[in-house]
């Protein structure tokens, strides 16, 4: 085994093991995110009683250590002040090959309990955008995805340009403008949208929560597609901002109750409302591209969970934009190969 | 005692008792709102075990009944499907003198336990805006405030016009375009903004919740004023929508931690972040006025809690708009006088 990469985020973590040739040997995933307790209970709940992340990591991939990996790479919220240790934010513009060099070495005593020669444990830095370089912004974890996504895209044969906008949908959706610079990807600037977090908050509680079943999957249901498209369209009205359009999801559901719709059921209304909210939020995010002409002209690439990216692609198409989806797993593997100096 | 008016909303209720001349005799307020349990626990929690609103009402104002009021007027979410009984929505455009005539008579057996001749219990309808008349929208409770606010404004001697935009800030902020028609106020159209609900959700949880002390009052602190103004300005950037600006509140707080600011404390950073979030949301709401020229030209009146209205007035001033504040208590009393056919 050459190395292990762990994308340790707020709500979950995912581990990959690579062999000497950079091929995937094994993969693991669980819900032990850095903010797991904090998100599900009182805020800041983990501050008082710090978790033993070293022991948690050994519990997660301890058996892999016996196969002699040289490095374990950590990325994501594990490097925040709520995580294991706070890693620096590197300010953009930044060449992404700096990430590995700027990683912090962490002490990991628990590893010596399971193997004689523990791997080097490297905590990757995040990125920041200081106010003088654009809107203040930060990311943790996505920088590693970007490093790999760029390489994966360049190696795919589908990259007709040496510049692109990478969109990483999720709780905090990130847009990053990347440009090739002597074979290396440089992050010129980035911006964060609270799209996923708002969907979660609004679909689970408050005025919309009672109308939306947030556990209902958005399947390829015609009603979901129709509701999503309506939401995307609602988001494009300059006259009505997001604050008003959000309430429209409620008003439309109240004024068109199931009994008044032939064949309409409560489940269908909930599905429709969830789809409208989703379309409204994603449409609001992507609609900003129409107001940022410099970005709109770039190739657009989405890196994230396939189903979510498919919805993003649907919204983009409705806005006259072409969005290509990349596999986030392939991106992470490509990032690990880059960090290890292996070819693709 | 002539009548009792009860503004029974989602999170609280307020009762007023008027004498034969329409003067205030007594007033009461508590937190037993219609969604009280639902908001503080699992959603829809009240659906299974319906509350006995009749008994709750007797407990609230039973002692007043011995003074022989003829009518008890109920307005607000008590008339929703989660309340006592669902009252209809009257579609706009609507003359507000229709409200009393269209009220539902409720049966109130519990009242006969405390007085021989119980008052008539009248549940006021809400308003709806059907899709053919604008964006679908609904209100419950605000229509009664509007009826009174219009009369209070007209009687104040400060009404230079026979038309105005009334803004009712709160969990779901309402804008209503009213016009005088043969001495009666007519609601032409209205729109709802989820301003207050988003502030509550975002300041208590998620990425911003840990940075904001939502219990911190927004006092006349210079840092709060400065942060609020920044938020209002952030909301006016067409290039950066609300979803991106929300995350900016977090990024600015992370990139300018207390230790790097001379004299800055954690409390100050939290106050600043809360003020920025508030300015961003209120600025986003009021900024829509700049995109609705027909409304922008009207006299602007805010009816709501004094401190909240003061922040709205500050945001309006920053946007070059003049916003006059009206007392919501005076508005409700004027509404009761109108419903009872009493002069001001």
Give the uncertain stretches of chain A in residue-range form.
Answer: 38-48
Helix content range of chain A: 25-40%
Strand order of the largest sheet of chain A: 3-2-1-4-8-7
Largest sheet of chain A: 6 strands, mixed
From the N-terminal CA to the C-terminal CA of chain A, the straight-line distance is 17 Å
Q: What's the overall average pLDDT of chain A, rounded? A: 90
β-sheet strand percentage of chain A = 15-25%
Q: Biggest interface and which pair forms it?
A: A-B, 53 and 54 residues
Q: Strand-and-helix sequence of chain A, N→C?
A: EEEHHHEEEHEEEEHEEEHHHHHHEHEH
Using the CA coordinates, give the radius of gyration of chain A. Answer: 21 Å
Written account of the structure:
The structure is a homodimer of 344-residue chains. Chain A is an alpha/beta fold. Chain A has helices at residues 36-40, 45-48, 53-65, 98-101, 142-155, 195-204, 206-209, 222-234, 242-255, 266-287, 293-296, 306-318, 328-340; strands spanning 3-8, 13-18, 24-30, 71-75, 89-91, 94-95, 104-106, 120-123, 126-129, 137-139, 163-168, 173-181, 184-193, 300-303, 323-326. In chain A, the strands form 3 sheets. Chain A has a 6-stranded mixed sheet, sandwiched between helices. In chain A, strands 6-13-12-11-14-15 form a 6-stranded mixed sheet, sandwiched between helices. A 3-stranded mixed sheet of chain A has the order 5-9-10, with no helix packed on it. In chain A, a hairpin with a 2-residue loop joins strand 12 (173-181) and strand 13. The two termini of chain A are 17 Å apart. The relative contact order of chain A is 0.13. Chains A and B meet through strand 13, helix 6, helix 7, helix 9 and helix 10 of A and strand 13, helix 6, helix 7, helix 9 and helix 10 of B.
